[in-house]
Amino acid sequence: MRIAIITLPLHTNYGGLLQAYALQTVLERMGHQATVVDKKEFSLGLNIPLRRIVERLEKRLLRHDDCYVFYERKIKQWAPIIRQHTNRFIQSYIHTVKVRSLKNLKDGQFDAFVVGSDQIWRPVFTPQIDLAYLSFTKGWDVLRLSYAASFGVDTIEYTPSQIRKCKEAIAHFRAVSVRESSGVDLCRQLFGVEAEWMIDPTLLLSKNDYVALVEKAGISQSAGSLFCYVLDKSAEIQKVIDTIGSQRQLTPFFLNAFSENKKVEIEKRVQPPVEAWLRAFMDAEFVVTDSFHACVFSILFHKPFVVCANHGRGVSRLQSLLGAFGLADRFVFDAELPSAIFSPIDWEDVDRRLDGYRLNSQAFLSKYLGKN
Questions:
Q1: What Rg value do the Cα atoms of the chain yield, rounded?
Q2: DSSP code, position 108
Q3: Potential cystine with 72: which of 45, 129, 151, 326 (Cβ 3.0-4.6 Å)?
């Protein structure tokens, strides 16, 4: 079966890349031909709406905001440099079709569409949210499914118009599954749809699958023993890092670059390879993070970890993940660390749960997609 995976655009986000890779790999191992639809994020800078140009000029001239009037053109210059390593990973491991808009896909191009995972159903990341519910396939004879699609939050962020359009589109899905337990409630509340809870696609692959990527890339050993993968740095998180480093006598090391910071030189914005990020989990003795997928890979690699609440990026998805594995005590909301953080994790219990979740996910995919 020719399956199109609908997810967020592929760029420098490690979790976003690896969840797309994992879902594609799982579907291919089932015998399907899976393709990730990669929506282009920026125009070439030649057709920027006049309204947007005026807004940026106002910010720059009147508010002294350091923004670029022709930002899309700057992105076109920067992207190949910043994304050189992540682009290589995409080209090597993810089969893609590039489109300007999902509306550019054609009837008959695919037999099935699978939406997920990541925060694909969050309007802040997908402004034309009804397209993430496959509204563009109206009237097509295709199979529609969501696998571990995420709202990101446990509150309603949709307008009445968006709810109406998405409700109409999701009614044509063969089955719906979401990544957070709160998403089950949202599907029922917003659309009157009964959804199933499923684990993130990255958890469907084994640790050895990811180690193989690292070994193939020949990545050298990491620079420390306390892996700090922090998306939004703060004084509180730094205090957590300092406390754990001191108490466990571990050397902190960071990996993510300043890829989104326009004020630093381009060399410091180059995102390290995906395989280097994976290698960090192999080498770490402890992980400090505010990232959903860093929690996932800490679990896969059996690394003790602490996750700091990041309300801007969504707390419910982290609570759902940790709760599913009996690891709710790994979550902290400030710099004060409870003693449970340093307690050994029962990895046998974690693996038993993971095995059960994997079987459930495999049964879900097999039931609705079957083997090719």
A1: 21
A2: T
A3: 45
Cβ–Cβ under 8 Å, residues 40 and 72? no
Distance (Å, whole) CA 20 – CA 293: 12
- Map tokens 């009147």 to a residue: 62
- pLDDT tens readout for residues 200-230: 999 999 999 999 999 999 999 999 999 999 9
Average pLDDT over residues 8-33: 97
Q: Where are the alpha helices (DSSP H) in the chain?
A: 14-29, 50-61, 71-82, 84-93, 160-170, 181-191, 207-217, 235-248, 274-283, 292-300, 316-324, 347-369
State the Cα–Cα distance between residues 189 and 183, nearest whole angstrom. Answer: 10
Decide: residue 352, CB within 10 A, 0-12 exposed, 13-18 middle, 19+ buried. exposed
* Helix residue ranges, H only, 122-170: 160-170
Most confident of 62-66, 351-355, 368-372: 351-355
Note the pLDDT of residue 71: 54
pLDDT band at 77 (very low <50, low <70, confident <90, very high): confident
Model pLDDT, residue 64: 55
The full DSSP string for 261-287 is -TTS-GGGGPPPPHHHHHHHHHH-SEE
Q: What is the pTM of this model?
A: 0.91
Question: Of 80, 76, 79, 57, whose CA–CA distance to 68 is shortest?
Answer: 57
- With beta carbons less than 8 A apart as the criterion, state whether 147 and 117 touch: yes
Do 306 and 341 meet the contact criterion of CB atoms below 8 Å apart?
yes
How many CB atoms neighbour CB 282 within 10 A? 18
Using one digit for the tens of pLDDT, what is the confidence trace for 228-275? 999 988 999 999 999 999 999 999 999 877 777 777 888 889 999 999
Angle between helices 181-191 and 316-324 (to 10 degrees): 130
Closest CA to 292 of 85, 13, 8: 13
Joined tokens for residue 221: 């050993």
